[in-house]
C-alpha cells in the first residue's frame, strides 16, 4: 500500500474520486471544497502550500498556470510532494488506471517538486 495521498483540485470531476475509491478503497483521495479542506475558489499558490504542509500530491487539469505557480513556490524555498497533470485526451478509465498505478508503484518522494503529465509512459 502506498503512502501517496491525492488532493483533486476543484475542477477535477467528482467521478474521479468516486471511481478511485471504488477500485482502491485504501487510497486517500480528497477534493478541494470538501469540509475541512481548502474551499472552492482557493488560489493555486495557497493550494500548493496546503499540499506541502499536509503531504498531498495535487491532481489537476491546470496546465496553463501551474508551472508558473510551482516555479514561484520553489523560488520561495518551498517544496511540494508533486503535481499530476491530467491529460484531456485520456479517458476517465485510462486516467483512473494511471492514478492507481502511480499510487501502487510510487514512493512519496518520487514526484517531489515536479509536475508530471499523464500518462507516464
Tell me about this structure.
It contains four helices and five strands. The protein is α/β, with parallel strands linked by helices and 121 residues long. It has one domain (6-117). A five-stranded parallel β-sheet has the order 2-1-3-4-5, with helices on both faces. Helix 1 packs across helix 4 (92-105) and helix 2 (44-54) crosses helix 3. It is globular. The protein starts with 5 loop residues before the first strand and ends with a strand.
User: What is the approximate shape?
Assistant: globular
Oligomerization? single chain
CA(first)-CA(last) distance: 22 Å
Number of strands: 5
Total separate domains: 1
**How do the strands line up in the largest sheet?**
2-1-3-4-5
Q: Which stretches are poorly predicted, pLDDT < 50 over at least 5 residues?
A: none
> What gyration radius follows from the Cα positions, in whole Å?
13 Å
Order of helices and strands: EHEHEHEHE
Report the average pLDDT across residues. Answer: 94
* Largest sheet: number of strands, sense, barrel closure: 5 strands, parallel
Please count the helical segments: 4
Structural class designation: alpha/beta
The percent of residues in helical segments reads 25-40%
- What percent of residues are in strands? 5-15%
Protein topology:
Blueprint: E1 6-8, H1 14-23, E2 29-31, H2 44-54, E3 57-60, H3 66-75, E4 83-85, H4 92-105, E5 115-117
Parallel strand pairs: 1-2, 1-3, 3-4, 4-5
Helix pairs in contact: 1-4, 2-3
Q: What is this entry, summarized?
A:
With 121 residues, the protein is of the alpha/beta class. The protein is 37% helix and 13% strand. Helix 1 (14-23) packs across helix 4.
Amino acid at each position: 500500500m502506498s503512502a501517496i495521498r491525492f488532493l483533486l483540485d476543484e475542477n477535477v470531476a467528482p467521478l474521479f474520486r468516486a471511481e478511485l475509491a471504488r477500485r482502491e478503497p485504501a487510497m486517500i483521495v480528497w477534493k478541494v471544497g470538501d469540509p475541512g479542506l481548502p474551499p472552492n475558489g482557493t488560489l493555486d499558490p495557497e493550494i500548493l502550500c496546503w499540499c506541502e504542509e499536509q503531504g498531498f500530491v495535487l491532481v489537476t487539469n491546470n496546465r496553463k498556470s501551474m508551472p508558473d505557480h510551482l516555479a514561484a513556490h520553489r523560488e520561495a524555498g518551498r517544496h511540494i510532494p508533486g503535481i499530476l497533470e491530467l491529460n484531456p485526451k485520456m479517458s476517465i478509465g485510462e486516467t483512473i488506471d494511471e492514478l492507481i498505478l502511480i499510487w501502487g508503484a510510487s514512493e512519496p518522494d518520487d514526484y517531489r517538486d515536479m509536475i508530471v503529465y499523464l500518462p507516464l509512459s
